Amino acid sequence: MTVTDVEEAAMHRALALGENARGRTSPNPPVGAVILGADGTLAGEGATAPVGGPHAEVAALAAAAEAGSDVTGGTAVVTLEPCAHTGRTGACTDALIAAGIAKVIYAVDDPNPVAAGGADKLREAGIEVVAGVSDLDARNGALRPWLHAVETSRPFVTWKFAATLDGRVAAEDLSSRWITGPASRADVHEIRSKVDAIMVGSGTVLADDPSLTVRDAADEPTGRQPLRVVLDRRHRVPQTARVLDNSAETLVLDTAVPRFALKALHDRGVRHILLEGGPTLAGAFVEARCVDEVVAYLAPKLLGAGPSALGHAGIGTIADALTLDVTSVTPLGDDIRIVGRPRWHGIDE
Q: pLDDT digit string (tens) for 118-152?
């Protein structure tokens, strides 16, 4: 089955709506939806609300109703297969059928066995269904962490670090403020705003006393704050640490085992983690094969000494070096941001 140029454009808009919802929907997926009238004109659009709120399709139908648009015989364009089950909210398939939608176009099949089967239910109701439109874009976009969590039963982990060109994250005297420039730091806050949790180890808390919040250009907390997670097996974090203030919720885990920590966070509904710890924690996650994406900010500076970005990671020879598939290289002021995916992604999870 083919889609029209208008329907293709609607899918691009749905993908953008899903991206705008990223970081605010877990444990539900960040889905975008566009409703077209029978004549192909825009009737309504929406994205998944925070947990307990309407899913994208229901939000888009509500927007169409509020605008007075007739959606009978229309088309729903969605980034994820509409769900067929009733949880905190009703099944999206039921809402689409009740609204008189004649055609549903979606990007990605729902891998969640609890919610899957929506396409079949829609077809049984006489609705034309087109699946797989912009599938790759959707899988590599806002849905990627959620899809990973469903398929592996652990959160998606993005490891972020800032380093000099010779790979140092601090000078020999352990000073590190600031290695990168303001453009890179602003970009980090943008990433923070789209994840469910930020994780560090107790060593980072003791050395840097970070706040781990999303902040604006004036260094003030802004918007939704992700969960702050500290791995503190030896109970070293003092009660005066900034990470324990009331700027955001904080979870202190009495463990140094990545997979145990990831399971605990998955059980809490966390689907995407930003790993911001030091070399020791990063090494532990790499050794456990629990890093799914690497975001490196490289500053045009040389130190020659000081801690490196990655500590012991169970790699003893060049043949065992972890290879990254680089997905983007972006200049940010004087710095360069490199994003890569470990070659083991999708293997040995």
A: 999 999 999 999 999 999 999 999 999 999 999 99
Tell me which of 45, 57, 276, 293 is the catalytic residue.
Answer: 57
- In this prediction, residues 212-235 reach a mean pLDDT of 91
Tens-place pLDDT, residues 289-317: 999 999 999 999 999 999 999 999 999 99
CATH number belonging to the domain at 5-147, selected among 3.30.1360.30, 3.30.530.20, 1.10.10.10, 3.40.140.10: 3.40.140.10
Instruction: Look at residue 346 in the predicted model and tell me its pLDDT.
Output: 47
What is the bridge-based pairing of β-strands 250-253 and 272-275? unpaired
57 is a catalytic site residue: yes
Which residues are CB-contacts of 328 (< 8 A; sequence separation ≥ 6)?
A: 337, 338, 339
Q: Rounded to two decimals, what is the model's pTM?
A: 0.91
